[in-house]
Design brief:
This protein is mainly beta. About 10% of the residues lie in helices and about 40% in strands.
Length: about 325
């Protein structure tokens, strides 16, 4: 039995060292379109080229192939977008092109993509049709950006007593039965830092008469929002506890309460956060964003796993690769003063 096991391990190790030869069209760089917007943002998108990691010039160009930098540079690019069935095109400009030419931009050697921006402000339930034509490519890049309706939600309770550097909230969400919704949460905290200068007791264990100094600068920072598992029997987690997205199947058109812990409220013997205000946001993400982030998370786990199964990133762009996605936001202002 020991000999059989040793032979199996030997065969496995040999199999893992064999070279894999990549051939064919999958190694060729293709145009990539990417857009991730939230309601209230100006509509924008990034254009770049895909990168094959075994490209001959991969190392020479700092980890990025020559095609990545030169595949779009100097080509005529026409970006079109139409909102909600309108025949009027949304205007775009290339914001990082030093030449100022939006139709034939040239890479400046620093940015890894062309970013296109428009004055159009993204609204709940928007449906944006993209069409990007690139000189030298037969097929345009096309994609549909669908923004969900704004989530219907309320703060049911808010406990501002700090425990484990967190405060706690209960949010009720009335799910929209007419569309597929994926809910996430984020919080932006405005605060001041206070630090103590104090002396210890003789045994060095207890601070004596601490003197707190409040720094005058106000800090605005994104803080972690943790989803408490007991809110549902099952969860759909993406990238850990602090970046949770709950799928539509957990709500199924019904109203549910979600328990949250909001981090960043440090309170120890030498450092305290003095909160001023907080914006707590409930996000309804598009199905495309949920699937893209899910595939990205699986890919990340695969890269960390020995002999993991290969995962392809989710793409909803035709004629190339990439993802256009977005989310609608409902926010609550909390004043701590």
């Amino acid at each position: 039995k020991a000999l059989t096991a040793a032979a199996a391990v030997s065969i496995l190790c040999v199999a893992c060292t064999e070279d894999v030869v990549f051939t064919g069209e999958e190694t060729r760089s293709v145009p990539v379109m990417f857009s991730d917007v939230t309601t209230g943002d100006n509509l924008s998108l990034d254009l770049s080229m895909s990168m094959f990691f075994l490209h001959d010039e991969y190392a020479e160009y700092g980890g990025l192939s020559k095609e990545f930098y030169e595949g779009l540079s100097g080509r005529r690019i026409d970006v079109e977008a139409y909102a909600n069935g309108s025949s009027e095109a949304i205007p775009f400009i290339c914001v990082n092109d030093p030449s100022g030419a939006s139709h034939t931009p040239v890479f400046d050697g620093e940015n890894m993509c062309f970013r296109y921006a428009s004055p159009y402000v993204v609204r709940p339930s928007d449906k944006i049709e993209y069409k990007v034509s690139i000189d030298g490519y037969d097929d345009p890049l096309t994609a549909t950006l669908e923004i969900p309706a704004a989530p219907v939600c309320e703060i049911e309770s808010l406990d501002t007593a700090v425990a484990d550097n967190c405060i706690r909230a209960v949010i009720s969400i009335q799910d929209n039965a007419s569309e597929e919704n994926f809910y996430a949460f984020e919080a932006v905290l405005t605060y001041q830092n206070a630090y103590s200068g104090y002396y210890y007791s003789d045994d060095g264990s207890t601070p004596i008469n601490p003197t707190w100094t409040v720094e005058p600068d106000t800090v605005v920072s994104m803080v972690s929002v943790y989803f408490q598992q007991e809110s549902f029997d099952i969860t759909d987690e993406i990238s850990g506890d602090s970046d949770v997205c709950l799928s539509d199947r957990l709500f199924n058109g019904q109203k549910h309460n979600v328990k949250l812990e909001i981090g960043g409220f440090y309170n120890d013997s030498w450092h305290k956060v003095l909160p001023i205000s907080m914006e707590l946001r409930v996000l309804s993400q598009s199905a495309a964003k949920y699937h893209y982030r899910s595939s990205l998370d699986k890919l990340s786990n695969d890269l960390m796993s020995f002999m993991g199964e290969s995962v392809q990133l989710y793409s909803n762009v035709k004629g190339g690769f990439g993802c256009v996605m977005g989310e609608a936001s409902t926010g609550f202002e909390v004043d701590f003063r």
